[in-house]
Design a protein that fits this description.
The chain is mainly alpha-helical and about 90 residues long. It has 4 helices and no strands. The radius of gyration is 19 Å and the shape is elongated.
Length: about 90
């Protein structure tokens, strides 16, 4: 199947996309962490909530990888045609 042959390429491209996203948003991450740290120092009882908030922040950023994969699936459907019955899941 063609998809099994391109999966390693898609995985590699996903990693590159993650790295690029991290580089482009480094200032944002640093500012977010600074704000979280400032709040934690002022309100220590909120530490668990702030850790949860930080996890959510990272999770939202990582959700783009699912979209990246869905883009490849959609491209395969467009190229071959949705009604061909081919499976483009990675």
């Amino acid at each position: 199947m063609v998809i099994s042959k391109i999966k390693p390429l898609v995985d590699e491209l996903k990693l590159k996309a993650i790295e690029e996203c991290e580089e482009k948003n480094e200032d944002t991450y640093q500012e977010f962490n600074k704000v979280i740290t400032d709040i934690a120092l002022r309100y220590p009882d909120l530490k668990n909530n702030l850790l949860s908030l930080e996890e959510l922040f990272v999770e939202v950023g990582a959700s783009g990888m699912d979209l990246y994969e869905k883009g490849f699936i959609a491209a395969g459907e467009i190229i071959v045609g949705k009604n061909s019955g081919a499976d483009y899941r990675l």
